[in-house]
Amino acid sequence: xxxxxxxxxxxxxxxxxxxxxERILKALSHPTVGxxxxxxxxxxxxxxxxxxxxxxxxxKVTFPLSATGSGGMQAMVDTLVAPGDRVVVGVHGAFGxxxxxxxxxxxxDVVKVEQEWGRAIETERLVDAVADPxxxxxxVVHGETSTGVAQPLDGLAEAIHARDGLxxxxxxxxxxxxxxxxxxxxxxxxxxxxxxxxxxxxxxxxFTVGDRGLERLQRRSWYFDLQAMVDYWFADGPRxxxxxxxxxxxxxxxxxxxxxxxxxLEARWARHARAHEALRSAFGVLGFERLAPDGEQLSSLLxxxxxxxxxxxxxxxxxxxxxxxxxxxxxxxxxxxAWRIGVMGEGARPEPQERLVRATAxxxxxxxxxxxxxxxxxxx
Length: 380
Ligand SMILES: *Cc1c(COP(=O)(O)O)cnc(C)c1O
Prior knowledge:
The chain has 380 residues and is α/β, with parallel strands linked by helices. The chain has helices at 22-28, 38-55, 69-80, 94-105, 123-129, 156-161, 211-214, 226-233, 247-263, 265-285, 312-321, 350-364, 368-379, and strands at residues 11-12, 61-65, 86-91, 109-114, 135-141, 143-144, 149-150, 166-170, 189-191, 205-209, 289-290, 301-305, 325-326, 328-329, 338-342. Helix 4 links the parallel strand 3 (86-91) and strand 4 (109-114). It starts with 10 loop residues before the first strand and ends with a helix. The structure holds pyridoxal-5'-phosphate.
């Protein structure tokens, strides 16, 4: 029987998980303590404070849910939306579609505002859709990982707040990799994940909710009972047990957030934007054109069209098995037609990008030297 030590090392440049640095692996393997140990409580307080800084919010209720990013989405549905609520959902890729599905299963009256994959949704169309006074919430995906498009948030909070509704956002792939200030954007609640731009393994969903959302808190879900989590994370007295916190994952997130703070959030956003453009021009040389038009791109994910006539799956297979590099294929209508390349945290650096560019050039017969030159110029 193989052991995990036989699992090969990979350079993770797909849609997530992203490369996990040694510092974070080390934090993950620190000896476990109890979830009610006061020493662990200090780590929790730090994590909450660093998450607020990273999300640019003052919301007290800002903490990692014990679930992956999709669990963050489920928690948002179960705690902030009531059956029958009219909820407008922007769908410009796979992740908006998943939210519409989750809301529908929870009995919400889902109104989709759809857009072709590869473009942002026009603000006016979202604003028009929330004009119905029965609207209780507006949900958008800030960073669509299926298309590499960033959805502008400007003007949306005002529109939904005029209906006394909640502005809800998925920032799984954008958090710490693309400019985002939740309070400034008027966001009432948002969820993220650890395995994209924070470079922590998958397993936690950073989550934040402000007063407007807390006033409407639903307690239908036993596991995602936000009040119970507030009583554990933010108790004035002793922390109350609800479920055992994933101690070591929270250690890892603590270290991941420290790394974000050391670099500085704005500097990190700028590095991701630069890494994205450098990789984009290198892949342009190899005949892979970016899907997102200028100005709509998500820094942390480069989605490119596969050149005509290239059978992409065997190339990705060889990159993984022979070169040890993971990139992701297209989802839904883009299956077989696009690659999704992560530009996330430690993946958004010249060295890993050069490895990918060289390997791709060799496996597709592209001009390796010219592609590497374009990458270097992008970083210069
Ligand atoms: C990855 C991702 C998710 C889902 O997160 P999981 O950790 O896979 O559950 C949700 N939304 C977006 C935009 C994502 O990129």
